Amino acid sequence: MQKKAVVVLKEIWGFEAFRGSQKEIIDAVISGKDVLALLPTGGGKSICYQVPALVNEGICIVVSPLVALIQDQVDRLKLKGIKAIALTGGISFEELNNLLDNCLYGNYKFLYLSPERLQQSVVQQRIREMNVNLIAIDEAHCISQWGNDFRPAYLECAILRELAPNSPMIALTATATPKVVEDILENLELKEAKIFKDSFSRSNIIFKVKKTEDKLYQLKKYITTIPGSSIVYVRSRKMSLFLAEFLNKNGCKASFFHGGISRAEKKEKLSLWLDGDLEIMVATNAFGMGVDKPNVRLVVHYQVPDSLESYFQEAGRAGRDGETATAVLLNTKEDEELAKKQFITSLPDVDFVKKLYAKLNSYFQISYGESTSETFALKFNSFCRRYEFNPNMAYHGLRILDQNSVINLSDTYNEKTTLRFIASKTNIFNYLDNNRKTAPVIQTILRTYGGITDYNTSINIQLISKKTGEQEKSIKKILEQLQTDGIAEYRNTASDLEINFLIPREDERTINTFANKIRDFNKVKQSNMDAMLGYINNTSSCRSNFILNYFGEDVKEECGTCDICTTSNDHSLFDIKSEIIQLLKASPKTSRKLAESMTVDEKKILEALVILLEDETVLLNYKNEYAINVQ
Predict the structure, then answer these.
(1) What are phi and psi for residue 491, nearest 5 degrees?
(2) Is there a single domain that holds both residue 25 and residue 152?
(3) Do 260 and 354 reside in the same domain of the chain?
(4) Over the range 190-228, which residues count as b (16 or more CB within 10 Å of their CB) and which as e?
(5) Where are the alpha helices (DSSP H) in 56-177?
């Protein structure tokens, strides 16, 4: 490998050496070879394209499926002083042109965009003019209908071959079955590509399925017996609020995270969790992608995920520092039927998708044949109530429309605030004199928005907060008070989804073009659920091996730590537990002190301690030492 790559790694990321197959992958990319990189979650995929892009002259085009993931990557690069641009939604044509000009003339190193954005003719034309040193297709499993999160727009990524014919291409994923690998190679035209596959094995994670009739009790027990940072995954926003409240009532520091909270709130919660001020995040799958926290000790799935790919990716956010971590799925007798109801029986058929699309156009008053570039805010639950749609089925239907590039669906919280001062100027001035504490905010609004005394005007709460130094919550209270005191009319509306219509409305003709794909999609979802339930109901195969076999790895050596393995190895664990109990009867000890006193592998000691904590035989005292639980 060129020495410069190692220098870049150390200077930019602070690492002394590459991990796993990173060195070989980067070697191949720098030498101009196409590459398919299959690396586990937390395996450092972004390094594999970012380092060679910085080594060579030119700009790297990165295609990624999620706006949040794109923005996270770009923000990280900017913090390191690297020039990167993101082409996300809501950009005007003029702004798009300016950003593309920067890519051509501004010495930028990375251009991140979604596969849908890649389909724009202006974007394609500008890419032809760029000095592209590398094409990176992130989350490449999205190109296969047999992969989790299939996005048909990914099928158009192969056009980059034509737009930048002399540039190598690297495709990267952490969740690809053999069938998905075939699709990636074929659809991206990766001919004579070098394939690198690091084992997806996460030997430091203890995988468990806990069957119980009291999930709340088991959740509390796992959270309180495994110290450190935790993630609890749920399938609904309502459940995230409920469990966060439950944990807080039981003495834990928890919060919730889902797609329906504001960007500012997401940023605040994430910062608290990353800094360790908040121990537990109860979240939907909106949380985790691109979040880099190495010391997560526990990931709990409180409800059944939709696929083994989703489960493994989310569980894999535990133990990225290589230290022992636990991934447990809590399961009751009813959960299997609930999962089938949520993911299988609520799958929309072709007729439902046609009806949903027609009602969506009617909701936003888009006429037949009309094309619009406007971004629409959708209050999802209100929409479902108006047309009496099953929410699960309607959401799946919107995802299908998104995946087939009919709409662009953004699962994000959005607020619109309007204000108009209705009092006379004299009364406004008198109000300012009598309310000195709020005067700076009111004066800033009056100076910023001309005509706000004549018209209902959209105002930006974040901008006012930045100008005045007041928190957004405080500003909203001031505006509410202005309304109460008869000084202004204030309206604040929120939506939890944003939609862009990507093609003109043609009703049934629009849906007919991919009707067969809807039927195939439903078959894939059924297959995914069968595999997930197979994992849960498995009682004989090592959990880790079950997952690795699903992803095409032929492994025979058992992990020795999952609930299946420890059940079959109870005798040896019994001896270890007995020795630990005898040592702790003498005095409380840390795991390190126990390891020093025993001739057993430390991993086995930690495994035994987890079981003893679960059984409430031992507990952690205020010094973070293990001690006998005297009841």
Answers:
(1) -135, 130
(2) yes
(3) no
(4) beebbebbbebbbebbbbbbbeeeebeebbbbbbebbee
(5) 67-79, 93-105, 115-118, 121-129, 159-163
Residue 532 inside a domain? The answer is no
Residue 452 covered by a domain: yes
What per-residue confidence (pLDDT) applies to 72?
A: 81
φ, ψ dihedrals at 330, nearest 5°: -90, 135
* pLDDT band at 1; cut points 50, 70, 90: very low
**Domain count within the chain:** 5
Query: Which residue range(s) make up the domain with 475?
Result: 414-495
Say how far apart CA 157 and CA 143 lie, in whole Å. Answer: 9
**And the tokens for 86?**
């993101």
Residue 358 CA from chain centroid, whole number? 30
Type of residue at 509 = R
Instruction: Give the pLDDT confidence of 382-426 residue by residue, as tens digits.
Output: 899 999 999 889 988 998 898 788 998 876 666 678 899 999 989
Cβ-in-10-Å burial (0-12, 13-18, 19+) of 477 comes to: middle
Q: Is 160 within 8 Å of 169 (Cβ atoms)?
A: yes
Q: How many residues does the chain have?
A: 631
Determine which helix (DSSP H) or strand (DSSP E) holds 266, and give its type and residue range: helix 263-274
Distances 552 to 143, 179, 523, 526 between C-alpha atoms, Å: 18, 9, 20, 19
Q: What is the pLDDT of residues 244-300, one digit of tens each?
A: 999 999 999 999 998 778 777 888 898 899 888 999 999 998 676 656 788 999 999
Token pair for residue 92?
A: 């005007």
Using CA atoms, how far apart are residues 345 and 402, in angstroms rounded to an integer? Answer: 20
Q: In the chain, what's the furthest Cα-to-Cα distance?
A: 86
Q: Are 268 and 353 found together in one domain?
A: no
Angle at 628 between CA 626 and CA 631, to 5 degrees: 135
Which two structure tokens, joined as six digits, stand for 368?
A: 């037949």
Are 385 and 464 in a shared domain?
no
Q: How far apart are CA 72 and CA 53, in angstroms?
A: 18
- CATH number for the domain spanning 169: value is 3.40.50.300
111 & 86 share domain:
yes
Grouping H, G, I as helix, E, B as strand and the rest as coil, residue 56 is coil
Phi-psi sector, 189: left (phi>0), alpha (psi -120 to 50), beta: left
Is 533 part of a structural domain of the chain? no
Tens of pLDDT, residues 349-378? 999 999 999 999 999 999 999 988 888 888
Q: What is the pLDDT of residue 270?
A: 86
Q: Strand, helix or coil at 570? A: helix
Question: CA 471: distance to chain centroid?
Answer: 27
Q: Are 311 and 535 in contact (CB under 8 A)?
A: yes
Verify that 558 and 576 share a domain, yes or no. no
Token code pair at residue 298: 């526990």
87 plus 23 within the same structural domain: yes
For residues 239 and 383, state if they share a domain. Answer: no
